[in-house]
What does this fold into?
Amino acid sequence: MMLSGVPIPHMDAYQPKHYICRRSEGELVLDGRLDKPFWNQAEWTDTFVDIEGDLRPAPAKDTRVKMLWDDDHFYFGAELWEDQIWATLTERDSVIFYDNDFEIFIDPDGDSHGYYEFEINALNTVWDLLLIKPYRDGGPPLDSWDLKGLKTAVYIDGELNRPEANNRKWSVEVAIPWISLKECAKEHRAPLPGEFWRVNFSRVEWQVDVVEGTYRKVINPATGKPYPEDNWVWSPMGLINMHYPELWGYVVFANEDGPHDFVMPQDERIKWELRKLYYLQRNYREMKGTFTQDLSLLDWTSDVEVHPEVYAVDRLFQISAATADGTGKWVIREDGNLWKERDMV
It folds into this structure.
């Protein structure tokens, strides 16, 4: 697979959102409503922002999420304020974002390879898929893959596909069994208290008009196609692309003993510096036809003290840097995979 350059996210600093995900008490009976005792245990995330962050205005409609976990499931509750509640797709694994939708992205081990995407519309129609690697790295989505044991429900505060109704919002409940997520997880297991997974959420919102009593996407007369959709997210991406797992938020799994807060580990900042070099190497090769071992040619500046070692040839590169505790190194290669190697004792 010939790899091309990759767009570089626009951001002033590396500051993904974080969320302390508490253990749940009691059983969740899914009906799509979030106004029940089960969800009182969880805090709301920050209200969603535009996918490009401060480059674009804040969303016109509010979205926020709650999360909980137990031994068996990862739970999500999403609230989407909306005066135009509509959906058309009824077949599982349809391209759900052709409707307004809510989406969940999960990278359990944070290597940016092997992650999950889930989409749902107001009809409770689901699209779930496993991505071997991001599209930028040549990764195919496994569309036939399913989240086994998945439970979902949608509640509509208003009426679906009825423009004349008093529509206020729709909400979603999702329960994903850990057994469906272990394939890409560390040691192929559920998380332990104190560990974190990389997670993000997206809300797709299309412009619609009411025509003859039904919702229809607004057509751009210059193209004859609908205007591009809005993308509103929890943790901003700095570009219009959800498939940059390194930019997703940190979801920290906690029990009654904590943790009660999150400070980004120094290793995460070291990994971000390697990721910046990955962007720059890919774009350098797009221009020059080869990767380089000379980092001075990449216009790289670092926000932390890190001393990368580089190996590069025409079509391959590998860049490494010491871990924060000095017991190993982080390594990234040309297809974006990033992993940890421990020093031999």
User: Anything to note?
Assistant: The mean pLDDT is 96.
